[in-house]
Amino acid sequence: MNYQIVPIGGVWQGGMFSVPQAIADKYLKLSSEYQIKALLIILGSGGVSSSEEIAKRLGITDADAQGIMEFWIAEGVLTSDGAAPENYANVQTAQAEAKAEPKRVRLDIKPPSLTPKELDAAALENAEIAELFNEAQVAFGRTLSYKDEELLVNLVNFYGMKPEIILMILTFAKSEKEKGSLISPNYIYKICENWLDEGIVTVALAEAKLRAVEGSNRLWREISERCTLKKTLTPKQAARVAEWQADFSNSVILMAADAMMENADKPCFNYLDTTLINWKKQGIKTEADVERDKEQFRRQKKEKESKAAQGKISRKPTYNLEKIKKDILNNTEI
Description:
This protein is mainly α. The protein has helices at about 20-30, 35-45, 50-60, 60-75, 90-100, 115-125, 125-140, 145-155, 165-180, 185-200, 205-225, 235-245, 250-265, 270-280, 285-310, 320-330. The protein is flat, with a radius of gyration of 30 Å.
């Protein structure tokens, strides 16, 4: 049976206060009933209360109240009479790290080579690694090689990636394979590398990332159908599509794809990427901006043709279709 707080009613009329997440995650098991109650009294009193007040409200002696509070003082949760706890510096560091962005982990350090015996031991000692092996076999559609197993074990034991996050990536890879994408161990490794580099180290961040990836994939499938391009993207190309979506609406990106089909000799991912890079530089962000730029280009082209017919030299139009073609050669983003 599931339970949830009723969002309205008399229980809320007296106001509310914050309770640290660690109380629910860690201290429910470590602390006693009276220690939890005493802490709630302090939190509900604006973070400050006396042993006398706690004793009165809990129906215990002042000495017992002080004894209860020693637990929270030792944990660095409370301080008494304004004194800093012994581990105050560590507490401050932990708080700062909690507020900071997730640490990025680079896969530029070579992981250790593992023997088949060590791989077998890793699967026997860690049920999550054994599950990773099974899911990877399903995703790849074949028996895992020694190198496949070594990669998975090192992702967990060497790079510290959570098994549940790797499972999410494998499940995603399996769904992509069912849609016709080619899935390889290197593809899985590249996704893991990108995620670690981006600081995606929690399940919540992984879920948000997958939603974004699925949105990017849907957009690219529509583009590939319009422009007869490859449906499969490399992890780096998929990241670029996500960057497009951060700068433009899907409708504007599709307009760029249509412009590519009208003007490109050979439509390709790089051409579309270069077009959007130039649009961003020119401040073209909306459908109206695109239409205005098109109209300006048509007008300048007409003026150029008119002047050329009269033997006059015209200035170069600002609409940069020709420049796009040249810029493609210098586009090193992909």
